[in-house]
Amino acid sequence: MTRIVLLGGGVGGTMVSNQLARQLKEEILRGEVEVTVINESDVHVYQPLFLYMAFDQAVPADAHRAEKSVLNRHVKLVIGNADRVDRENNMVRMSDGQTIPYDYLVIATGSRPDMGSVPGLIEGGHTFYTEDSALKLRAALQSFQGGRLVVTVGVPHKCPVAPLEFTLMVDDWLTAQGLGKTSQVVYTYPIGRLHILEPIADWANEIFPARGIETHTFFNAETVDPEKKTLTSMEGETLSYDLLVAIPPHAGQDVIKRSGLGDAGQWIPTDRHSLQMEGADNIYVLGDATNVPISKAGSTAHFQADVVSSNLANRIRGGQGSHRYNGKVFCFIETGRDQATYVKFDYEHPPMPQAPSEMIHLYKLAFNKMYWLSAAGVL
């Protein structure tokens, strides 16, 4: 029997497993192939809704489904914490002592926000990158009476356009709450423009001034003083705030560190086209877990899942697994005022933001509803 194990049951791991279950259905039914997903929780969470939770436009129940209900019935689900990947013996060692052997391993462990990377940020700031933090930010926004709302961005982080989305959405929200005239939205970015992708930075450089948003570039957050309510950069600039919202630097998961698979940031060295871990013919990596030079986003994992599942199915059936990932990414950008835009790009073609419109905003809201069909592999 050929055993395919997927470490991580988020969007990437779920999509790969469901696609394999369809493509290899006959082999699975004959007992020749087994597909197993290891996930730390029995709940599948649609993380993009955290941004909407901060504005009370979504609640946790909207983002939750039982993981089992999202998986194909021919996929085996193991709930538990993986301690490490044992490459020498081709197995995943679980924290409870269980071992799960594999012939092929797909690592889709995602990433985690590191609020502790900036001293004082945990005590003095908020974020929306986890469900709990999004709900705390919701409470902070509801009690906000106006003043300076500072958005500070660290890199790398997942969802490349999320800082822009939050900034524009909160500016719109403050106006709707009657706080626009008594509030100032401030946006900081660590390099010399407003976004790491230059076409998006150029787009933001037009829309931010039009909305009256104050910007500070070359601003790498170094410390937060929760008592004085100040944020100081490595470059020596200090900003005061009444409410601080951070897009903190992200890192790979601890299981990657314990396994000795990652670089300094716990990102796994991965071939940008085959999505195989460098030096490991039987390990594939996708989504946030890779060091591939492309945005860490749900759509990235989606498009990579197509390549990984096709190559695995092809190899199991005697092929060479020659499908290639071209760096394709597609991201909606909420811009407030019931409008949105989008960007699509790949290794060869840069993103070109479109003019925001209400129709694109409606498409984005519709996709949030249809995500579950996408995760299940129907779309």
The side-by-side strand order for the widest beta sheet comes to: 5-2-1-9-19
In DSSP terms (H or I, runs of 4 or more residues), the helix count works out at 11
Tally of strands: 21
Poorly predicted runs are: none
Mean pLDDT: 95
Shape by Cα distribution: globular
Instruction: Provide the CATH top-level class of the largest domain.
Output: Alpha Beta
- Say which CATH homologous superfamily of the largest domain is assigned: FAD/NAD(P)-binding domain
CATH-derived topology of the largest domain = FAD/NAD(P)-binding domain
Please tell me the total number of domains: 2
Describe the structure.
The protein is an alpha/beta fold and 379 residues long. It has 2 domains: 2-110 and 253-316, FAD/NAD(P)-binding domain, CATH 3.50.50.60; 114-249, FAD/NAD(P)-binding domain (3-Layer(bba) Sandwich), CATH 3.50.50. It is 31% helix and 25% strand. It contains 11 helices and 21 strands. It has helices at 11-23, 25-29, 49-54, 67-70, 121-124, 131-143, 162-176, 198-211, 254-259, 298-316, 358-375, and strands at residues 2-7, 33-39, 43-45, 64-66, 76-79, 82-86, 91-94, 99-101, 104-107, 111-113, 147-153, 183-188, 214-216, 221-225, 230-233, 238-240, 243-247, 250-252, 283-285, 329-336, 339-345. The strands form 7 sheets. Strands 5-2-1-9-19 form a 5-stranded parallel beta sheet. A hairpin with a 2-residue loop joins strand 20 and strand 21 (339-345). Helix 1 (11-23) runs parallel beside helix 10. It is globular, with a radius of gyration of 21 Å. The two termini are 29 Å apart. The model has no long low-confidence stretch (mean pLDDT 95).
